[in-house]
Amino acid sequence: APHPNVHVLQPNLAFYKRVGVDGVFEQASPYASNSDVEPLKTYLFGRGLRDPNFDWRTAYGEFLDHYYGPAAPQIDEYRELLHERLRSSRMPLWFYNDLSWLDAGTVEQAQNIFESAFGVVDDDSIYAEHLAAANVPVQFAALVCPPRVYQEPDAYVFTRPASQTLQEYVGMLESRGVQFLNDYPLAL
Fold first, then answer.
1. Of 127, 144, 136, the residue nearest 178 (C-alpha)
2. Binning pLDDT at 50, 70 and 90, where does residue 53 land?
3. Among 38, 153, 164, 187, which is 20 to 30 Å from 21 by CA?
4. How far is CA 120 from the centre of its chain?
5. Which helix (H) or strand (E) holds 181?
6. What angle do CA 42, 48, 53 make, to 5 degrees?
7. Which letter, b or e, does each residue of 159-172 get, where b requires 16 or more Cβ atoms within 10 Å of its Cβ?
8. Which of 2, 9, 84, 89 is nearest to 47 (CA)?
9. Percent over 90 (pLDDT), the chain
10. Burial, 120: exposed, middle or buried (Cβ in 10 Å; 0-12, 13-18, 19+)?
């Protein structure tokens, strides 16, 4: 699932250093690089563990440029979209992220950003593969986010972001070698 915590990784490490913490166990997804921008977070963790006071914004930009190439601006836009949605929701981002802070409109915006990102890279490039992995959490969010609800004179209308079926999503995960979903074995 989308988990917008990139902006707190370095500040947290710098805080731990200031208060005398000798060791930090950073956990991300041990099962797949298809988790929420896992390579970016791993890079920032690594930099921060060596030097907790590093300029994370510069490192973030450098990573995006090298890893996502021409789609770096879109990935930055996506990260900012999620961060702003989380901030405006005023909800905490827990370890087990239930996506209660996310809404259908934000998911649709994220889908549009990824559509734009895929449009600026060659289909057979490594950047396209990196984008496909980064898009997996957005596809999950489209499946599980709360629908919009409208009341009409004689009915309630529910609308959702466009998404794969659960079977299609699981098939896509299996084709990417994903074996776990939310830390549970992938099985229907």
1. 136
2. very high
3. 38
4. 20
5. strand 180-181
6. 155
7. eebebeeeeebbee
8. 9
9. 66
10. middle
Distance CA 107, CA 148 (A): 12
Q: How far from the centroid of its chain's Cα atoms is residue 152's Cα?
A: 34
- The region, left, alpha or beta by phi > 0 then psi within -120 to 50, assigned to residue 2 is beta
How far is CA 22 from each of CA 10, 25, 53, 66, rounded to the nearest angstrom?
16, 10, 15, 32
Kind plus residue range of the DSSP H or E element containing 173: helix 166-175
Please tell me the distance from the alpha carbon of residue 89 to that of residue 70, in angstroms, as a whole number: 31
* b (16+ CB within 10 A) / e for 82-107: beebbeeeeeebeeebebebbbbebb
Question: What is the H or E stretch that residue 109 is in?
Answer: helix 104-119
User: How far separated are the first and last CA of the chain, in Å rounded?
Assistant: 18
Query: How far is it, in rounded angstroms, from Cα 117 to Cα 20?
Result: 42
Phi, psi (degrees; rounded to nearest 5) at 152: -110, 170
Read off the pLDDT of residues 67-120 as tens digits, 9 standing for 90 and up: 999 999 999 999 999 999 999 999 988 877 888 899 999 999 999 999 999 999
The span from the CA of 183 to the CA of 31, in Å, is 8
Q: How far apart are CA 166 and CA 142, in angstroms?
A: 11
